[in-house]
Fold:
Amino acid sequence: MQLALSDPTYSPPTTESSVERIAERFIHDRRDIPFLKLMVLTSAIVVSTGLVLFVPGQFRWWLAAVHLALVIYFMGPFVLMLHNTSHRRLFKRPWSWMNQFIPWVLGPFFGESPETYFAHHVGMHHPENNLEADLSSTMTYQRDSVLGFLHYFLRFFFGALPELCVYLSKRNRRALMFRCLSGELLFYAAVVGLCYVNWRATLVVFLLPFLITRFAMMAGNWGQHAFIDAASPENCYRNSITCINSSYNRRCFNDGYHIGHHIKQTRHWTEMPGDFLANAGKYEEERAIVFDKLDFFGVWLCLMLGRYDWLAKRYVHLGEVRPSEDEIIGLLRTRTARI
Structure:
């Protein structure tokens, strides 16, 4: 099957601006210049409007609604910038201290408590690969069940911190455990303190993004690991999915290539489409689940609504002969069964 991808890759520019030349002095990889632009943009728009809401006498509910809309609009790109810079450091020495700007300064405005994402995603999720010891594993859930997802989300929302600390302690990664614990507790303390300053601004700027982001991350992870082959749950080709040619990939740095990311977590985001094309035969051999023009949240929504027919229409068959819709639905249903 011939595949055509519209997801972003990297082409060296024919001309280079003075800003880009300066940026290259600070960052490890010039392909990550979009992250610098996003950092500046979110600082100027999201952080500034959030701070205005705390100015005495300046809180307005219409401005709060505008701010929250901006947070939601930039949330996907921000979280995937955080994701990529957690796996690959953005700034090089002697400016490595600037690597803290994304998780510690920008993160709280997008509902991301400092250090928790890194500890959970890099320190736990990737090593455990959605298997039994993974605290965000989807294996034990019926993955087209609304009640199953509700239990999954509530367990994560209320139990993520203590479970993660116990996990890191047992793995003798206490330094990472203390980083996670300090970031999370400092975030909670700051939110409580700010509630005494201006509870309405604190609700809009920090608490609602915290709730929305954690829900979105769990819905996304559910979609990423919804289709698991019970005979080989450790196989990245069979416990993750790939979503191609989506607007989500263009906005969120090719996050849809989740199989490729689990196979090599430090692979650069611009290399994902090329790696997928180069290994399409392996994806076919492993019967990997690939969707076209659909993202993880679309997958999650289809499963919550039980619309396997919508999923089947977006299913990409990499072989020569496409199965029938009933055969595709049968495969997808098998892969969502509780293990």
User: Anything to note?
Assistant: The radius of gyration is 21 Å. Strands lie at 241-244, 289-292. The CA atoms of residues 53 and 208 lie 14 Å apart. Residues 236-335 form one domain.
